[in-house]
Q: What sequence folds into this?
């Protein structure tokens, strides 16, 4: 079982009460002499906090939230026969409990009423705790969830949130945990998918995800850039690591894709053709392309443009290192790279082999990383150009390792808005170097911008010996449903 801690929304997720809620709303509208709304209109208007929903369907002077809330809860009880457990809910809750999962309800509704409903539908014994509101205008679901996580010290890699609204997605992202949304709840599939939320039909599909141990890795490198595994060896290693799918994302190169595809077909591995572009920005800006056509003319022209500038940059890095007193030449780095692609990682490894540094990371941190004495400015490709090239090749574009940009959240958001306009699909929400704070910040940012998530180990073989494929620095885990969500986005593009 992939997750140990299951966090549930209640209304619209465990119980199917949408028609009850719609009846309550229309009762209120009738009392005010106004026309009822349809289920489609309900899906269009509903949002959180719920008071905003009433401002959308009523004039401001008719929104007395205290009165509306009292009437709603009275009407809800009267229409309760319209509410049932969601199909398969009790069976799934029972199975999860029997398999040792901890289960919690986090709801925006009053805790007392929620507890009564949970008992009424006969599922109370399946939950460890129920977190609800004492006042619907006070503490938010997000704040209750954060406080609970801090109190229980729950490992975020072991937790998933299952809900039915964008507010549930917001809660999950604020916690830095995976999120699955069901399509039968209080916000329709159309709206959820417009925000790139992973949305499934029913709880049967939820069960399949929770018990699905398949993992993916969307960020790896071969000898066709600065990795130490050939494309064939990389595919074999992915299989050995237990991956069900992975992406080959060499720096500024698609040279290894055909070889990798051939081997992947031979051993039954799902390979995603990809690339990682290094952009010429004021910071470390790398754009990952996934599901690209490696023979696309626009893409190939972009790669060709980069070859000469990359060579010039690496020669400049070596020259600066020589100026610092190190016996490092571009020809030596080229020989280390097998006469192909030379990147900073090759130069760093050469520094380690010559005893100038103990690790590749030390070399970056002291000499060749951004702002260090031997750093050389990147190639002529802008981040916008990188995104457009990936999209022209039929791919999805993601900003990689956001923590390495050196930007704060406000600066990141400004950059991402610019790249979204160019066609950026999302960000890496999974990465070995992210702290829990990073994860929460970046996923909340993704939710605000309606971005999807990608991620990966950034595996380079012995270039980064502390990084393993699939697991990163030890606890990275990207569920297969992230890949399924990407495929859904591709279908809708």
A:
């Amino acid at each position: 079982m992939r997750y140990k801690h299951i966090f549930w929304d209640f209304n619209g997720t465990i119980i199917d009460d949408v028609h009850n809620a719609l009846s309550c709303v229309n009762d209120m509208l009738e009392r005010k002499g106004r026309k009822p709304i349809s289920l489609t209109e309900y899906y269009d208007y509903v949002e959180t906090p719920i008071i905003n929903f009433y401002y959308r369907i009523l004039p401001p002077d008719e929104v007395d939230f205290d009165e509306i809330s009292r009437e709603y809860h009275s009407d809800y009880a009267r229409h309760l026969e319209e509410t049932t457990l969601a199909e398969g809910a009790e069976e799934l809750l029972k199975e999860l409990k029997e398999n040792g999962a901890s289960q919690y309800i986090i709801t925006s509704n009053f805790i007392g009423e929620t507890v009564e409903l949970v008992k009424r539908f006969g599922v109370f014994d399946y939950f460890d705790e129920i977190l609800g509101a004492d006042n619907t205008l006070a503490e938010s679901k997000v704040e209750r969830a954060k406080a609970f996580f801090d109190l229980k010290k729950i490992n975020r890699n072991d937790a998933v949130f299952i809900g039915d609204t964008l507010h549930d997605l917001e809660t999950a992202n604020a916690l830095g945990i995976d999120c699955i949304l069901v399509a039968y709840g209080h916000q329709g599939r159309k709206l959820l998918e417009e925000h790139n939320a992973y949305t499934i039909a029913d709880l049967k599909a939820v069960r399949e995800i929770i018990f699905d141990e398949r993992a993916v890795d969307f960020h790896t490198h071969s000898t066709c850039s600065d990795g130490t595994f050939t494309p064939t060896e990389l595919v074999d290693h992915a299989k050995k690591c237990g991956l069900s799918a992975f992406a080959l994302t060499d720096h500024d190169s698609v040279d290894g894709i055909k070889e990798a595809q051939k081997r992947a077909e031979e051993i039954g591995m799902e390979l995603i053709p990809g690339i990682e572009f290094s952009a010429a920005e004021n910071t470390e800006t790398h754009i990952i392309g996934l599901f690209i056509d490696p023979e696309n003319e626009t893409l190939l022209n972009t790669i060709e443009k980069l070859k000469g500038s990359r060579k010039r940059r690496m020669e400049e890095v070596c020259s600066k290192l020589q100026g610092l007193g190190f016996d490092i030449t571009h020809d030596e780095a080229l020989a280390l790279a097998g006469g192909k692609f030379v990147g900073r990682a090759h130069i760093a490894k050469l520094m380690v082999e010559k005893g100038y540094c103990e690790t590749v990371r030390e070399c970056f941190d002291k000499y060749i990383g951004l702002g260090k004495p031997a750093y050389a400015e990147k190639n002529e490709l802008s981040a916008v150009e990188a995104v457009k090239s990936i999209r022209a090749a039929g791919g999805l574009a993601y900003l990689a390792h956001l923590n390495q940009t050196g930007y704060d959240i406000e600066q990141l958001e400004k950059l991402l808005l610019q790249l979204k306009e160019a066609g950026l699909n999302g960000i890496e929400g999974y990465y070995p170097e992210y702290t829990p704070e990073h994860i929460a910040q970046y996923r909340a940012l993704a939710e605000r911008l309606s971005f999807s998530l990608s991620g990966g180990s950034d595996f380079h073989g012995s270039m980064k010996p502390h990084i393993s494929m699939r697991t990163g620095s030890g606890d990275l885990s990207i569920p297969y449903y992230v890949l399924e969500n990407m495929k859904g986005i591709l279908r809708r593009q």
